[in-house]
Write a structure and sequence with these properties.
Blueprint lengths: L4 H4 L3 H14 L4 E6 L5 H10 L7 H5 L1 H5 L10 E8 L7 H8 L6 E2 L8 H20 L4 E4 L7 H8 L3 E2 L5 E2 L7 E8 L18 H5 L5 E3 L2 E2 L5 H7 L6 H7 L2 E3 L3 H4 L26 H5 L3 H7 L9 H18 L5 H14 L5 H11 L3
Parallel strand pairs: 3-10
Antiparallel strand pairs: 1-2, 2-7, 4-7, 5-6, 8-9
Helix pairs in contact: 15-16, 15-17, 16-17
Length: 365
């Protein structure tokens, strides 16, 4: 598709300012623009894949060539409009989040997943944004992405200047820390390119030191196979025994590296109700979540990112956390007995994967 004649006639600086204003009006918290060239990032990806650090995320290997060259995803594209959207809801208190990790019978779910599925929220707003641009300049070539295609979005956002890559490999922003989602629009317009941000991690290694499984093997190096977020979400198989105790009561994802990061004292609260926690997921006990039937799991996680892992992995993760509660001296005998009873009752309907984790849990105390 040829570049819109309306775009060719635009004042670029005025149009760039307009893009930023429209992004804010649609609920985004920042917009930057870069080209589609990733340079050495694709080589680093290939080395990471060759080392097997992606674990069971075979999709990353299947589409590595597309990740290396975003322009293949939209022929004729020359720029990437990168946006971020804060997700931290007002009710979150970091001290309380740390405190929940010290109460083994409580369930800890990653903060980003307690509300509506971010894929749904961002995808619709990204589409709306593209339509608004189309209304301004006429038809143009574009494609919208929200963690839904083989696109190295953190690298693109870093290059665009939305932030810098922290030592935990997440994107960090001077004004908002790391608690935001990313979205991209590939476009065929030669928009002005923004400059990257400098790295501001300095000598800090707090994220590396706090990681329960030492998944951050070196600055800017993550072994997904050790990461609790990977183990509880992406991993379809048994949780390796050597990591089960370190999981503690984390049943979906892990926020430790973000909670400890000094830059997240600047994390901005979201104004969007979509990311507010639902069904008490910030205060639930392990026993309460274990009591959900498969139908209740599907109903209560309707429109949630958690539903993607399915009931089987959900029960697997809960069983590990309950085993860790049984092993803890912080849990009294009455609560341990309730956990044992719940786990034993769950064996009757468990498949082989879940049953193995239940039996492991029962042996912990």
């Amino acid at each position: 598709m040829p570049i819109s004649a309306n775009y060719s006639a635009l004042d670029e600086s005025e149009f760039r300012a307009w893009l930023g204003e429209k992004a804010l009006a649609l609920g985004f918290d920042g917009l930057r623009i870069t080209d589609t060239h990733l340079g050495s990032a694709s080589e680093r990806l290939q080395a990471w894949l060759a080392d097997g650090r992606h674990g069971h995320m075979e999709y990353m290997e299947r589409h590595a060539d597309l990740r290396a060259d975003p322009a293949q995803l939209l022929p004729g594209s020359v720029r990437v409009i990168c946006v971020r959207m804060n997700y931290l809801p007002s009710e979150i208190d970091f001290d309380a989040e740390w405190g929940r990790l010290e109460h083994p019978t409580e369930a800890v779910i990653s903060m980003y997943a307690r509300g509506r599925d971010y894929h749904k929220v961002l995808r619709q707003r990204m589409q709306d944004f593209a339509k608004v641009i189309e209304e301004r300049i006429g038809a143009f070539g574009y494609r919208v992405f929200t963690d839904s295609a083989p696109l190295m979005e953190v690298e693109l956002a870093k290059k665009a200047g939305l932030g810098w890559r922290g030592k935990h490999t997440l994107l960090l922003n001077l004004d908002s820390g790391s608690m935001f989602f990313l979205g991209e629009i590939l476009v065929d317009m030669p928009l002005p390119i923004d400059e990257p941000q400098a790295d501001h991690c300095g000598t800090c290694q707090a994220c590396m030191n706090v990681c329960p499984t030492q998944a951050i093997t070196a600055p800017y190096q993550l072994d997904a196979r050790r990461c609790i977020s990977y183990l509880t979400i992406e991993n379809p198989e048994a949780i390796p025994i050597e990591f089960r105790s370190a999981m503690g009561n984390r049943v979906y994802g892990c926020d430790d590296c973000q909670l400890i990061c000094p830059w997240n004292k600047f994390a901005k609260r979201t104004s969007l109700p979509d990311f507010a926690q639902r069904h008490g997921l910030g205060q639930s006990s392990l026993l309460h979540l274990w009591s959900w039937t498969e139908d209740e799991f599907a109903q209560r996680h309707e429109g949630s990112a958690i539903r993607r892992i399915g009931y089987r992995r959900w029960r697997r993760n809960l069983a590990v956390a309950m085993g860790n509660a049984l092993a803890s001296s912080l849990v009294d005998e009455q609560d341990k007995q309730l956990i044992r009873q719940a786990l034993s009752a769950g064996l009757t309907s468990a498949d082989a994967l879940v049953a193995e984790h239940i039996n492991w849990a029962l042996k912990q105390g």
